[in-house]
Amino acid sequence: MRAAIIALLFVFPLLSGLGAAHEPDTFTVIVREDTHTPQEVNLVVNDTVQYYNADTRENMTHEIGLDLNGDGDFNDTDEFSSGTLHSECDWDNDSDCRVAWIFAINTTALVGNYILSDLLSDGSEIEVRLNIAADVHLEVAPPIGECFGDCEEEEAEEEMKRSSQTDLQKGLMLAGMMMFGGASALFVATLMQKS
Ligand SMILES: [Ca+2]
Known about the structure:
alpha/beta; Immunoglobulin-like; 8 strands; elongated; binds calcium ion
């Protein structure tokens, strides 16, 4: 019995930590000739989105960025961009060549809903939607009329709905932690028996 209690003490902090933290995710967008797949990405701060150029037309490049003043470049105040994205690179001769833009959302300053532009070297443009939210825990507020204090179960449900993209990952993590917890319990029980 004592062994079981000690084992639970090991497992509980792990399980409670699972619901409290947003695990950083990486999203991949395939940049095609005339569209992106997917066309819209929803991120939370600390996630990463990577845009891979899969447009293999010869001499065609893409550049994705925020053109705040709509003047057709990404060089003005508060604008940012991927730089030129090629479909293939000869890194031996051009180490700066890029086929992908890996955009790490590492600051809350980026929170917002963006309509980015993918400017192609032939002058055409693809609209790119990118929504960046603050960490879910800063956003979650119970609807009016619901309790703020002793309603932990409801808060937990809310978090699951909002982070559905990571449910599989969370499930895998949970399974891993259960196994770890089980192993810890066995280990502690063995120790208790020996002593
Ligand atoms: Ca501009």
